[in-house]
Design brief:
Strand order of the largest sheet: 2-1-3-4
Order of helices and strands: HEHEHHEHE
Number of helices: 5
Helix content: 25-40%
Number of strands: 4
CATH architecture: 3-Layer(aba) Sandwich
CATH topology: Rossmann fold
Oligomer: single chain
Radius of gyration: 13 Å
Structural class: alpha/beta
Strand content: 15-25%
Length: 99
């Protein structure tokens, strides 16, 4: 990994089946594609994939984006002792969960 990417925050998002989840994923993808953050896999963190858990615990700044009140991203990180530096629950922005 190059030095520039190591300085970027990691961004984790919900990407479930609801419209709110897909919006969270879209926002994270845009942060990644525009070079503002490096997107990583929250399913891998929740699934205890060693390399992805290690990355989440690496000390890099973390942006977590949840689509609905279930807060799956926040909870997956918490299982591994990780707290996001910036947490964005989309419900606080008026995004409603629709299937």
């Amino acid at each position: 990994m190059n030095a520039i990417k190591k300085k970027l925050p990691l961004v984790y998002s919900c990407s479930g089946c609801s419209s709110a989840a897909q919006m969270a994923n879209y926002v994270a993808l845009q942060l990644d594609r525009r070079g503002a953050a490096e997107m990583s896999c929250i399913a891998g963190v929740g699934g205890d994939v060693p390399s992805l858990v290690k990355l989440a615990q690496s000390g890099r700044r973390i942006i977590a984006i949840d689509g609905c009140p279930l807060a799956c991203v926040k909870q997956c990180l918490a299982r591994h002792g990780v707290t996001a530096d910036y947490y964005l629950p989309l419900r606080d922005c008026g995004v409603r969960k629709q299937f």
